[in-house]
Amino acid sequence: MVFDAHRHIGVLPAYPFYGGPPVNPDTTARATVGQLIADLDAEGTERALVLPNYGVPDPAVAFSFNELAVEAAQRDDRIRAGLWVSPRPEDQDRTLQALKLAGEEGVRALKLSFLLGGRPTDPACRPLLDRIFAEAARYGLVVHVHTSPGAASDIDEVGHLVDWYAGQVPVHLVHFGGGMSGHIKLAGSRFFDWIAAGKRVYTDLSWAIGFAPRWLAQEIERRGIGHDRVLFASDQPWGDFAGEYARLAAATGGGALGELVFRDTFAALYD
What is the pTM of this model? Predict the structure, then answer.
């Protein structure tokens, strides 16, 4: 059985990324709950955490998919919902509206990404960060945070959220740092240091560079901690389910670690 801890719903408008023509790179994006459920059936995915799709530099688009994610969770018990929120002062009204959905049936996470602006260490973002994590603690939710090397999404920045909040709230570091420097910083020490310090930190390996899943699995076995902190995630439509599954299955093998990664840790967090 496969439980997917990070995938998206909603179709984004075409956008002229990087100065090119308007394009839709997320070719497997799904506009309806029915289409999402059909994908789960085709994959054999038994559980999924579904988050609003995002990527175009307009936060209003991501916020607009919150109700769709909640609808998915309330229509099919295999699905749990995550809500898009933002710590940017410009997004305060929309974030407060999103947080009103935090107690809805099926909601199990809040999603942050600094790709659309803001920065963990920006003092202007701290009041809403405090509010977001307080609501997560109130409702027993996980906070998902996008990671990728450099700028505001680098683990040097996002790691502050673990330091400040993960003693009380589970923090899911999406993409395990998202690239070479992030992988080395996390697997080399920081991920395990946080676990040893009692932080409720989790991760997935979607987007991970080839060496990272196997190295992380080896470090988990060598250190004897972290077995229950790694989840499988497809990141559909930005990831590829078959490819993400194959890489992580090869790294974790068919034993106890694989059972935790593909099923049991998701169940502990979301069921």
Answer: 0.97
